[in-house]
Amino acid sequence: MVRIGPVELGEFPLLLAPMEDVSDPPFRALCKLHGADMMYTEFISSEGLIRDAAKSRQKLDIYEKERPIGIQIFGSEIDSMRMAAEISAASGPDVLDINYGCPVKKVACKGAGAGILQDIPKMVSMTKEIVDAVDLPVTVKTRLGWDDNSKYIVEVAERLQDVGIQAISIHGRTRAQMYKGEANWTLIREVRQNPRMKIPVFGNGDVDTPEKALAYRNEYGVDGIMIGRGSIGNPWIFNEIKHFFATGEHLSPPSVPDRVEAARAHLAHSLEWKGERLGVVEMRRHYANYFRGLPHFKEHRLALVTEPDPAVLHTLLDGVSEAYADGPTQA
């Protein structure tokens, strides 16, 4: 049984990665339905929480049906991160996660996210302050290092464990790589095989098929897998992997009606969470993902991303089912 503190996650948990503009409550609801064992919020700015910014505060929204769930925060100032941790803990998550992995320029080049990989002593000090500030299990998501010359993750993971984190998720790339090339899980395996490591080590990066999940589990010995981009438009991936682990066989791929139903449910959750106007607008980025690969879908997508009326959107989704009723090639 894999545990993060008192939180039990099963024998080999599959985690939904925290992703900006993706892992909000509407998308998390679908991933939970389709087998995610634990999920994280979008990353939340420590400075935004302290300033009581509405967008940051709304990202703290969590629901009982999502548990276990972690809130993830990021920032570059230790005092701000400690205060943000206390604010986040008051929202009642099961876990508090620290983002030491975001590679985007506006975050990393200000010393937050993966930027802190250039200052390991500060990373360790910040982590200790957060661990000491809250009564929740604290976890970390990070990368192998800043660049190929600073891949110190084996030592870093040990030092973070020593100041009290209770799990670590490692993306198998450096900050310099961004999301290019293949993720390298070799150092993730070294972290897991370090005899001093007692906490769960989760691998992250490039897992987008059941076969790859099984191969990575067997080859790298991680305690679980965190899935990010492989879940976008594909919340079924969690149950597909679990089924493959159990049987060696594939579940049938989601049909067009399955995709329509997922988009419909996502829209309903979005409307419930954000209200009609924002719920409709924020859903627009997801339609292309749910219907990826369908031939001649452009016309349907254009209608979906320009229609403001939820009732009409549901009618348009019915039209997608009808257009592909004889199979995806019959557009």
Strand arrangement, largest sheet?
Answer: 3-4-5-6-7-8-9-10
Radius of gyration: 20 Å
Gross morphology is: globular
What is the arithmetic mean of pLDDT? 94
- Derived structural class: alpha/beta
Give the H and E element order. EEEHEHHEHEHHEHEHEHEHHHHHH
Largest sheet: 8 strands, parallel, barrel
- The CATH architecture category of the largest domain equals Alpha-Beta Barrel
Number of strands: 10
What is the CATH class of the largest domain? Alpha Beta
Tell me what portion of residues adopts beta-strand conformation.
Answer: 5-15%
Gap between N and C termini: 47 Å
Task: Give the low-pLDDT segments.
Answer: none
Q: How many structural units, i.e. domains?
A: 2
Topology:
Layout: E1 3-4, E2 7-8, E3 14-16, H1 25-33, E4 38-45, H2 46-50, H3 54-58, E5 69-74, H4 78-89, E6 95-100, H5 105-108, H6 120-133, E7 138-143, H7 153-162, E8 167-171, H8 186-193, E9 201-204, H9 210-220, E10 224-227, H10 237-247, H11 256-274, H12 276-283, H13 287-290, H14 298-306, H15 310-323
Structure commentary:
With 331 residues, the protein is α/β, with parallel strands linked by helices. It has two domains: 3-246, Aldolase class I (TIM Barrel, Alpha-Beta Barrel), CATH 3.20.20.70; 256-323, Non-ribosomal Peptide Synthetase Peptidyl Carrier Protein, Chain A, CATH 1.10.1200. It has helices spanning 25-33, 46-50, 54-58, 78-89, 105-108, 120-133, 153-162, 186-193, 210-220, 237-247, 256-274, 276-283, 287-290, 298-306, 310-323; strands at residues 3-4, 7-8, 14-16, 38-45, 69-74, 95-100, 138-143, 167-171, 201-204, 224-227. The chain is globular and about 60 Å long. The model has no long low-confidence stretch (mean pLDDT 94).
